[in-house]
Design brief:
With 394 residues, this protein is mostly helical. The chain has 16 helices and no strands. α2 runs parallel beside α4, α6 packs parallel to α12 and α9 packs parallel to α14. It is globular and about 55 Å long.
Amino acid sequence: ENYSPILRKHGSSFVTLTFGLYAIATKGFLNGIRLFRHQAIAEMIHSLLKVVLVFIFVYLGFGILGAIFAYVLAPLVAFVFASIIIKRHLSKKRISKDISNNHDLSKFQKNESKTINSFDKWTLIKFSLPITFFYLLITLTTEMGILSVKSILMSNTLTGFYTSAVTLSRVTYSLFAALPMTMLPSISAAFAKRDFSLIKKYINQSMRYSMIILFPLTIVISTNAKQIISLIYSSQFIEAAASLSILVFGFTFLVIFMTQCSFLQGINKPNLAMLFAFLAAGLAWLLNITLIPKYGMFGAAIAMTLTALLSLIIISVYVYHKFKTLINFGSFLNITIASLIIYLVSLYWKLPGNYFMVSIFLLLILYLLLLVAFGEIKEEDKQLFFSILRVNRK
């Protein structure tokens, strides 16, 4: 009993340790060796365990301490799962293959020793440091609004409202945050082989699928902001709806910006990606201190969205200049028109009360039908969808 206040105060620091191990194993190793399916499973284990364990520990009467312990334990379990997968992969795929090629275990061990000794650690450090600073700057950019609202408006209530809007706006960001980390090893592998046609294919596919999925989700969240706020929090937080309606666009633009930065990281230009992130952080700071005194927390939402949009436009120009590709214009037009149509429909039609979820579902169906009508959904898209679900088409 005497130790519980200390544990509540300092126990959350252990989350940093276990989450760090989990992130290295999943977003680092599993992603790096392109075991994306296992990475997704590990991340699902982490997300589900957090919810389940919090419920169990709080129900058993451990209160805040139980919630903290759940947040410490969930990433640890996911880390153990990822570690088992990594160990199996390395032992089966790498070592067995190398031994069979060498036919001599002692020779294999010597070759391995040479590889390790000749490995240039400074190359890894020079590559990883800019990426570390890149994610630090992205985090600063996303948190700049909350920090600025708190420091400029000096209101805990408004900060709470804005934080609730930011939390819900991160839905699109959370869904596609893994895409940049997936594209980095893919682009890097193609670049190492000097397969520039494959690099262009990766760029086109990632941009197209990002737009197809993110645009409608962003629109239905934006146009139903009041209902979503009331459902998730309560009607007392309705003041955050205006910020949510614009912030969700900002986080969508940001994740597409990060995806394009991963193209540069993949061709061994992490410093350039870091400079683009530094530009984004600088824009966020400048726009926040300019707009928040005039427009309050809505100004912070505008600042975030403008920052992400301007950063996206700038890097898109560079990526197109560098790779001579970005997204097929016909696909861009089809997705944009379909998105605008459901945006207009959503503005003037929605079911009352909590039935708005049904109207969101119907709008997404309409969007899909529009893409089919425009000829945007192709056979390869259907094959990809069914392969993900492991469904055998007849």
